Fold each of these.
Amino acid sequence: MADKPYHRIRTERAPAPEGCPVDHAFTPFSKTYMDDPYAALAAKRHDTPVFYAEALGYLVVTRMEDVAEVFRNPAVFSSENVQDPVLPICPAAAAKLAVDDYSPIAVMSNRQPPEHARIRKHALAGFSARRLRILAPIIRQRCNALVDAMLAGGAPAEFVTGLAHPLPGETIFRFIGFPDTDDRMLKEWTTDRLAFTWGQASDTEQETIAEGMLAYWRYCVEFVKTRHADPQDDFTSELLAIHDADPDALAYREVESIVYGLSFAGHGIVSNMLGNGLISLLSDRTQWDELCADPTKIANAVEEILRFNSPQTSWRRVATQDCEIAGYKIPAGTQIFLSLGAANHDEALFDNPETFDIHRDNARKHIAFGQGIHFCLGSRLAVLEAQIVLEVLTKRLPSLALVPGQKFDYVPNFTFRGPKELWLTWDG
Ligand code: HEM
């Protein structure tokens, strides 16, 4: 298969499958859904677990069993649409990316078999236990420094700007090998990227994000060139070594595109996970106190955060051929909205799914990281970051609490979910 561009604008739209329930109003951009996607889809999961959302042109799948089945069948349900903008990009922003030297290609989430397996194998090797062991003390040290700054500023403090946003960006930049002197610039370029493809960014915002994407791509191209000439102990140099040993195993443009794609995949979503995690934990003092008293419970608490309040509530697929889901005949070309959030609250798998419970013995059965050949490449890194942040906060700030009375506001987004702001307080 020829290389495909990273993003594609889709205009085709398959009709509602015959006999399938149709909802004329459902959209993840509604205030009701953004405030609580779980409540918005709970009734659907019972009554019409698969339905066609007329306003979106997507088939919505809500039960764990059906979502998992779609993930497990990549030949019939392709991931080629996952990086396509959900809403059309404005002409001015599209023009900024239409220049010849903006040329990232699909390498992972939207790459199809058999090339996907070839590329993924090499990228996965970079997420080795050794690389995570090198990163762990760096994440812990930076987390402690950000907590020091929060404490120095005094309570109350805003957690998203203070810690949840900076830490994951810096982590993925160190993983790739970017120098920390470039952090400020890199963060400017990569922030808000989720709004470009999955959000409702205004035309002006889209233009700013597109400028950042172009600047960031050019930076990645230059960075890969530098590492090629002078390899270091980092993920990028490992990929280049594979390319040099056998260019058919991993093409040079694929290395550039992996580096480019990773910071987006592993940045804003982790910030959202940290915000959601603290909201869930601090909303139930008993469970927070338990973690402070016994940090060995943090690992399962992180799994429960991913199940109960995941930073990614949906993902997409497109049917490559006429097929069936839950007994409905689905025409080829149907775009599918897999509700990971609804599946993670499916009572067929989880007892009392609307209860946040750090002791849940099957919390790990969540589908927040997907399933099958595209299972999240950065899952171990994301979990490591969340565990370290919770270890540091429970140890240093056991009195941490949500500032009472605050209402959480969420950025309008088709797929990703996390608070815009999260105000915290603590004793003394
Ligand atoms: C809590 C944080 C995260 C969540 C909830 C999450 C979730 C997901 C999901 C649902 C998928 C799609 C799986 C599928 O299509 O079956 C995915 C894929 C992916 N994720 Fe993550 N992710 C997270 C963090 C990260 C991080 C930190 C990185 C990188 C450092 C990352 C890199 C990727 C990549 C490269 C893919 C595509 C894998 C492939 O197609 O083979 N993710 N992630």
Note: Residues 64 and 349 are 8 Å apart (CA to CA).
Amino acid sequence: MRNITKRFPGVVALDRVNLEVYPGTIHALLGENGAGKSTLVKILYGIYTPDEGVIILNGRRVIISSPIDAINYGIVMVSQSPQLIDRLTIAENIILGLKKYGYYAPVKLVEREISKLAEEFGVKIDPSTDTWKLSYTQKQMVEFIRAMLLGVKILLIDEALTYLPIEERRRFYKFIKGFAERGGTVLLITHKIPEAMEAADKITVLRRGRVVKTVEKTEVTIDDIRRMMFGERSKEITYERLPPGAPDGELLLVENLWVEGDFGGYAVQGVSLKVRRGEVFAIAGVAGNGQKELLQAIMGLRPIRKGKVFFEGEDITHRSTYYLRLKGVGYIPDLPAKYGVSIENTIIENIAVIPVYARGFIDWDKIRSLALKLIREYDIKTPSPEAPVKYLSGGNIMKVLVSRELNTATKLLVAYNPTRALDEATAIRVRRIIKNKVINDNIGALIASEDLDEIFQIADTIAVMNSGRIVGVFPAEKAKREEIEHLMVM
Ligand SMILES: Nc1ncnc2c1ncn2[C@@H]1O[C@H](COP(=O)(O)OP(=O)(O)OP(=O)(O)O)[C@@H](O)[C@H]1O
Ligand SMILES: [Mg+2]
């Protein structure tokens, strides 16, 4: 990619960017939220056309004006959200994209190839399974398998691994390493710098739309990369434990809770816990062990079959989400761009929708100044508070959600992976904001996270959830990392 420039109203997303990637390499593309990473790979995938600059493939200039063009050149993108049709089987989904077999795709043959590739991931999968039955991880695996069957030569991964549990991520990294060893090219976007350093051969750092530098992995340290990414802000990056709160008094009480999962059976099996004022109560666990369902049930988003929930002493077991929101409960759900914000709407409208503001008359002036305040405090990169959320970068969408919910949480914050999709410096900043708020405003926080660095940095109490149950609760200062990890996977 040579001299690529891309402007959007009010921002130069890419400014004369040069990027060269080679066969047989994993090339990481790193940079803070809004740096231009997604825009660059979207240009390569034919979603955006550059205002200036050219793309040269194997020595020849090419014009890529749609993903179909890109796929014909062997360029395939896998993003955060799976692009599969739920009502079709895995094989049908994959056949949809395979022109090489013509209209009469030999289903059996494709099914065999799918199974073979799944084995490379180290899992068994039946290609005739309906896609809606698959977990997020399995859907992402199908996306990778599809890319392989499409004959991918350059695989673009835009945070496609971000939402996967750690163990699964390792599996995916092994798979893409195998692909690179066979001559494939991977362009990898992630905010997990240590993972990028581990997986990549080369690294290009983008900052404010410009290339800071392209380096060989072996010539730099993690700290060098952080300095290139964040400049002065890199000094803020620390994984030390934040000052502890002084928990006092019971705020949220969960008693013997039973909650169903999406596919029958109980995802939450008799969970009891207590969150105090002034406390960050963190739940560690591998994704898919009931954390999501537990938080949804507390928030009134999933029916409770058995057990009770009390908030400030009041039984709220079957209360609505609306009711809890009015009481001052903030909520950060999983899949933020799907369940947390309405991406077609503006930042202001996304704030106005919160029950405390949306009762009766909406005071737009007040909401506008709140939007401006949050944009300033969280450094949300946007041309204006009137911008539709879909025009923001992934991390900045997350900042809109997190800032709004922390503002709503005048008593309790319930959050699922609150710093996912945020760059490292911003993630740590958000943890500080949460912690300060818990201490200064004496609120409680119930946070489920798969990121142990996050848990150890922020928690006052650490619980481990495994197979729908709480299998251990520790005061954070006494918790041992190995023990927590063991409980998570045993
Ligand atoms: N369709 C669009 N319309 C207007 N502005 C856009 C659009 N897409 C991206 N931008 C802007 O371009 C800049 C770069 O965004 P991009 O999504 O490439 O960042 P990113 O590096 O992927 O960040 P993140 O880590 O948060 O995903 C941002 O300022 C963003 O607001
Ligand atoms: Mg992005």
Note: Residues 424-440 form the longest helix (17 residues).
